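Expect sequence, tokenised fold; for instance:
***
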Amino acid sequence: MQLPLLIGITGGIGSGKSMVCRLFECLDIPVYYADSRAKWLTNHDPEIRERVTALLGAETYDSSGQYNTRFVASRVFNNAPLLKELNAIIHPIVLRDTKDWVARHAGVPYVVKEAAIMAKAGQANAVDYVVVVEAPVELRIQRILQRDKRTEQEIRLIMERQVSDESRRGIADYIVHNDDASELIPQVLHLHEIFRKDKSSNR
């Protein structure tokens, strides 16, 4: 079975990584949205539910059976060891789910995985290349203010907790500039050709 290349796309909040992914979808490239899929699995995967409840307690899921994000956040906030244990439960199952998803798309040249947190290609994430989407901080803040019901202070706090732009550049195989000076579509089309040719040359 010929598996497709797996391209990881990441970037800070407001960088526009989801927009880049939608452009790839317009090119008929399948996209795996890791963060939203992880939320779905946390609510529906029996192994996650059982192990996370054992770790954090009965309040982990509310009376309707939904993951109690606020309760979990209160437990793991400022408790790095507990957060590490929680991630050790969820991340391997999401990774397994990703691999199953990639296998279901055998035959296409490449697929895309979008995630807020990502390691360098080949490091515990199975991606072949990492694309980092970048935009200036002030532009990102303006985008989020228009999109979300958050204050500028809340947005800046989120940005401070996220991986720095310098760290993301350190894992990048390619960088997409999503600012007012750069056209997005030509950059995506250029990457599309690179990944298609890479796959065909490795067959």
Summary: The beta strands are 5-10, 31-33, 110-114, 129-134, 174-177. The longest strand covers residues 5-10. DSSP finds nine helices and five strands in the chain.
